[in-house]
């Protein structure tokens, strides 16, 4: 018997997403269970924070502001419920620029009823103890892959969707990465941010030697003229002794591909 009614904590971090945050929250509020939204605003310069405060009068939302990367922001957000939650509660991350479609809502409701203690489903839906066993790192790129690999290395079963089914589950805002990053910095600071972001991707994917760096660049089909750029970032990462999160002999990208359980969502595709 549960100590109290199961609570679903839905957490995330946001910066300058005033045009979609209400639709995003409204879409996930359709999940038929008791829930609470935990949101960290990275000091948005548009109306995002103002909108969130107003939405807190309509939805069960707790909001705070904190300077953070995407990874550390998510970690701060989920920890906002650490003291009030217990091990019968569930946690799930969300992106506030994404609208979650009906098939996703149905899947979430299904997993909430069937989820086992050693399982992690779409959007890192898992039990409280599982959630806090694997924290989000202070990273601004590929932080999802780092956490996936970490879950697998800890012995959890990770269930994910294949990319081709995303359009049936999510309405994602079209992303131009250059434009998105320009929201955070301009001029020389923009290029410094992009350099650091690629470094974070390398750290997230566990690129800890030249062999893994080469394997990654071949996998993503990096043009040969960019190999030197990759080597410079790799060397900088090593010189600065930035922590690299590697959970196997290969990069985390390959490790996840080999060990994740792919959900059969073929029924979503009418073709």
CATH T-level fold name of the largest domain: Spore Coat Polysaccharide Biosynthesis Protein SpsA, Chain A
Radius of gyration: 19 Å
Strand content: 5-15%
Globally, the shape reads: globular
Name the CATH superfamily classification of the largest domain: Spore Coat Polysaccharide Biosynthesis Protein SpsA, Chain A
| H/E series | EHEHEHEEHEEHHEHEHHHHHE
The biggest sheet amounts to: 5 strands, mixed
CATH class of the largest domain reads: Alpha Beta
Question: Going across the major beta sheet, what is the strand order?
Answer: 3-2-1-4-7
Overall pLDDT score: 92
* Structural class assignment: alpha/beta
What proportion of the residues is helical, as a percent range? 40-55%
Unreliable parts: none
With helices defined by DSSP (H or I, 4 residues minimum), what is the helix count?
Answer: 12
Total discrete domains: 2
Oligomer: single chain
Task: Tell me what the CATH architecture of the largest domain is.
Answer: Alpha-Beta Complex
**Could you give the count of β-strands?**
10
Q: What is the compact description of this entry?
A:
This protein is an alpha/beta fold. It contains 12 helices and 10 strands. It has 2 domains: 8-172, Spore Coat Polysaccharide Biosynthesis Protein SpsA, Chain A (Alpha-Beta Complex); 177-246.
What does this structure look like?
By secondary structure, the protein is α/β, with parallel strands linked by helices. Helices cover 42% and strands 14% of the residues. It has helices at 21-28, 48-55, 70-79, 102-114, 128-133, 143-153, 166-169, 177-181, 188-204, 210-219, 227-239, 252-259, and strands spanning 8-14, 35-41, 61-65, 90-93, 98-100, 119-120, 126-127, 157-160, 170-172, 261-262. The strands form three sheets. The protein has a five-stranded mixed sheet with strand order 3-2-1-4-7, with helices on both faces. Strands 6-8-10 form a three-stranded parallel sheet, covered by helices on one side. Strands 5-9 form a two-stranded antiparallel ribbon. Strand 2 (35-41), helix 2 (48-55) and strand 3 form a beta-alpha-beta unit. The longest helix is centred in the last third of the chain and has 17 residues, at 188-204. The chain starts with 7 loop residues before the first strand and ends in a 9-residue tail after the last strand. 35% of the residues are buried. The model has no long low-confidence stretch (mean pLDDT 92).
């Amino acid at each position: 018997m549960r100590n109290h009614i199961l609570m679903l904590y839905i957490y995330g971090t946001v910066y300058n997403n005033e045009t979609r945050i209400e639709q995003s929250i409204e879409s996930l509020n359709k999940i038929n269970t008791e829930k609470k939204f935990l949101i960290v605003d990275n000091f948005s310069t548009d109306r995002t924070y103002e909108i969130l405060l107003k939405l807190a009068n309509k939805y069960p939302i707790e909001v705070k502001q904190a300077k953070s990367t995407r990874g550390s922001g998510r970690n701060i957000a989920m920890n906002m419920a650490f003291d009030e939650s217990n091990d019968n509660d569930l946690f799930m991350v969300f992106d506030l620029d994404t609208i979650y479609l009906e098939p996703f809502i149905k899947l979430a409701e299904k997993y909430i009823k069937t989820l086992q203690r050693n399982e992690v489903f779409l959007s890192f839906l898992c039990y409280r103890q599982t959630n806090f066993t694997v924290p989000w790192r202070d990273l601004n790129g590929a932080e999802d892959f780092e956490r996936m690999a970490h879950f697998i290395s800890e012995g959890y079963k990770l269930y994910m969707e294949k990319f081709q089914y995303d359009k049936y589950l999510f309405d994602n805002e079209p992303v131009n990465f250059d434009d998105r990053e320009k929201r955070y910095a301009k001029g020389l600071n923009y290029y410094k941010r992009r350099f650091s972001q690629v470094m974070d991707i390398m750290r997230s994917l566990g690129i800890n030697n030249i062999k893994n760096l080469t394997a990654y660049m071949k996998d993503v089909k990096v043009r040969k003229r960019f190999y030197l750029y990759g080597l410079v970032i790799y060397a900088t990462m090593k010189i600065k002794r930035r922590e690299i999160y590697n959970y196997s002999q290969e990069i985390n990208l390959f490790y996840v591909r080999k060990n994740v359980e792919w959900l059969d969502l073929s029924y979503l595709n009418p073709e």
